Amino acid sequence: MNNSVDIETRRPMKTRFCTFYERAQLLIGLSVPIVIGIYTFVQYNNEQAIAEKNRQQDLAILNETRIKDLELAADVRAHDLSMADDQQKEDLLIKYQYFVANCPIKIHMPFTSKHLLLCLD
Amino acid sequence: MSDKNSHAVYFKTLVTLSRLNAARKISLIQSLYSINLIQRHGESPVIPLASADLANINFSVVTEFPCIAFEGALLNNASFRHANIDRASFKKAKLSHADFSYTISPNKQRNCNDNDHEDGIVFREAYMYRTKFINASYISAYFGQFAMANEANFYGFKCVSCDFSDVSLIRANFTEASIQAGKLDSTTFSRANMTEACLHKSYFQTVELSDTIMTNVNGTEAEFNKCVFSGAYLVNSSFNQVKIIQSSMLKVNLTDADLSKSNLTKVIFISADLHYVNM
Fold it and tell me: Which of A54, B15, B93, B229 is the residue whose CA sits 20 to 30 A from B202?
């Protein structure tokens, strides 16, 4: 039994070349994952580019919105300031008219310090 | 009012005016005017407006301002177009570039309790650089006493019994203006333009008329006493029945001028152009 095995192992192996069919089969077998790999790579890059583009657009929109919000806030603030200023002037005018109406500032009218304090209050 | 109280009211008015906008300034002035606090009253109004900041205000929206006293007020670039400012007082006011075009002062208001010797609209000692009086019409106006109206525009200005004494009117425009029975003592008209002006019955004393353009001027029955006409351009002017006394006419152009029936006493003509003068 052992002899027979030795004989088999000692027999020089005959080099077996792949046939064209086998090579083609191998090539086809390999090409599928390669194509899938390339496709995946390209697709990944493409998706990355789209994602980057979308991100940039989002940033731009965000920036624009922020600027608009700031402008709007500045406008509102300016309007509020203008309104406050206008109101202050109106109050000042009313206060002055009250002062004139309540002060004996006509000629020959007695005008004491008490009157003055009352007017300037 | 005592002086102390009067000052308090005056300062409050000044402070209030300085802090108000144009529309409210007009409102404040109108309210003070309606209760007779800023009208001419003797020496000064109840509430004086001296140094009050009323510049760039358009008073044209208020058409009636008789007897108002804007004495010493800052009225630069203010507008009074078409307003009735009869017997108003702008004494010592700053009126640079102000607009008085088409204003009237018919001198009919008799309720201004003021000095009798200034019976009319007053611009005494006012600063009127480039002020416009286009087609304004006044009866009795006092521009006199050190007022400055250089380069002012009096185009079509009509005034009867106006006093321009001691006024500087350098390069002022009096084209087609009418100053009838006016008094002009020590007035400076250097390089002024008086084309087609009417100076009928006006009295000029020691007036400087150097390089003044007086083409087609109607100066009938006017009187010029000790006036200097050096370089004046009097072409085609009418000085019929005029009185010219002790005046000098150096390099004056009197071509085609009418000096008929005029009284020329001690008048010096040096290098004057007297072509076709009717004497």
Answer: B93
